Sequence to fold (355 residues):
Amino acid sequence: MKKHNFYAGPSILSEYTIKNTADAVINFADMGLSILEISHRSKQFTAVINEASQLVKELLQVPDGYSVLWLGGGASMQFCMVPYNLLKKKAAYLQTGTWATNAIKEARLFGEVDVVASSEDKNFSYIPRDYVIPADADYFHFTSNNTIYGTEMRFDPDSPVPLVADMSSDIFSRPIDVSKYDLIYAGAQKNLAPAGVTLVIVKDSALGQAGRPIPTMLNYQTHVKKESMFNTPPVLPIFSALQTLKYYKELGGVDKLMLADEEKAGRLYDAIDNSRMFEGTAEMESRSIMNVCFVMSPEYKELEGEFVDFAAERGIVGIKGHRSVGGFRASLYNALPLESVEVLIAAMKEFEKKH
Ligand SMILES: *Cc1c(COP(=O)(O)O)cnc(C)c1O
Fold:
């Protein structure tokens, strides 16, 4: 049976990415060798990483003066690398969920942290508005999409200081004004590639000013200078990322991806809002188009487990909600076809009829 993959991460990748990755594991670039067993300094792999960086710049219209890096350690490593490299005295952070909270914790190791607003009071079900970013902060850090709670900031906030964003779960779902940012990072396993690589886009002129010694591997300048080849980069995930980026370009770039993502999310939210059995958990204005979180209304609560099984019988996998929200979470990343959303909606309607 065809599977409809709603996992939050690692998550669905395009068939193009999976197929080309599988082929490269057998025979990479007609070398008669697997990509798993060749030098990262071979001309064939150097071409891969260069093309991937070039496509990131093209798809997101990255201006001159920025570097694209491919690093290990996950998005979680960026929680400490960012303040290590960019926090001189004080940084501003927006607390919109678990990942933002983790980023704040790390930043406190390096200086003063001003948490300008938090939505913890309502279990992170909304994006705070009406906060003031101090003009003397070194940067303002936010999480553009809160994967666990299904809330999203689908805009580049106005700020008196440069922006830094964790875009792990919504990068390539809309155009970004990169010029407003000192740094953007994204763990690959949500909208780009298998786990193991983190994409970083950094403004070169923002580096080298922290006034503290930084260990070589944690210093962005090391990786800028060596074009992500200071040590062995995550070769296979970078190859897969290139396939996804080619596929995104083929589809028409981020403008087209955004339309498709809005269509998918719009349909699912409509189904939830028009149902007597299901209800969304995120505030309307804060809803994510990447992760749709919903629960069963109180009178049907005990049927949640049954619905997960009911959906599984129809090939729907990965819809169980994160433990901190409960219920369900349908992740609608770029590679998820509209058809899968239709199958989920049909299952919801059928289940509602049954009860
Ligand atoms: C998944 C996720 C992370 C954690 O990523 P790792 O690569 O596992 O460290 C951080 N931030 C956001 C927004 C995420 O969705």
